[in-house]
Amino acid sequence: MKEDSPFSLSSTRSFEEIMRRSSSYVDDYTLGLQFPACDFGSYYLYATLSGNGACQAINLGVTIGHDTGSNVNIPQLSGDPDKIWIVTSLICNNKSYRSFDFTTYKRSDAIYSRRGLDLQVADVVRVRGSWPHFEMYFKDKEYDIVYQIEGYAGYAHWVPDHVSTTMAYSYLLFPDFKLHGTITVKDEVFKIHGIGSLDHVFGRNINNPTGPVIGFWHADPIMWEDKHASNGLFYLDHKGNPYIKGGVMTLPDGGYHPAHNFEIEYLEFAKGTSYSGLEADCQIVPRRWRAKMESSHGTLTYETNPVEVFDPKSGAKLVEPCVLSKVSGEFCDFNGKVIRLTGKCYNEYESGAINPSKL
Fold it and tell me: How many domains does the chain fold into?
């Protein structure tokens, strides 16, 4: 079977045709035993969407094999290298369609090709492409939502050598992934475009008793003025010491500007759900914060305000760790010129040993 162009599937094929398992793109080595050279690996997209339409933000992710998970309040991450974790999330018409699957699929349901990137999990996930173009196809069976996304990255931001008590890992981040595509909610089709953060995390499980325990981490991908991006990582260990406080921005000229410092000051908290959404107990999650990102070419400061979202089934107001926010800020370059900005943020907050409200 002749392989089609990897960058035209969304316009030429149905989702069912895209996801049909086929040996035409798989080499002799599959994921039956391991993610290549890793105990675990993942691909995650956090993106806010342009305009004032129904769809405002998405989070799509797949993890093959899990670390222990004991330090990040996700007991489903049990350290089983055979597991697959899939998350799909959509903010649409102020409803949060957030779905997790920890149990349905295993490595035997995944196939992987080393010709560029081509990862498929059964009939629900396909991530494929090669620099700088990538495609993501996900199906949320709980809410009957199909995501067909493609786009291109401008820059790669590499953050290597994380070492904790249980794992050693690195991640590669595309902070300015400009995307477009369609989201089909039941039978309603939405055309979308925006800017997001696409990352690839991968590593090995280790036994390192003297390593740092995760306090919490907070990543802040923001789309500024529908054209630029920033993404800071505020990551503390279990004693409140900074493990990583850095990031990257494309302000104000669209260039690649790594940031040597990123800090968050929390302004408001609330009782909410965990990242997985499956735990019975509530936890404290950030709602509003003020942040500063410092780079060699200038300083970005901003403040966030949450957008209220509701449960699509019950209609109840939701308080989630991943918050869709409106953002206002300013960038001051090294000559003192100030640019005032507005944007949107769909953050990632993952709790651990530290309650952020006690800092």
Answer: 1
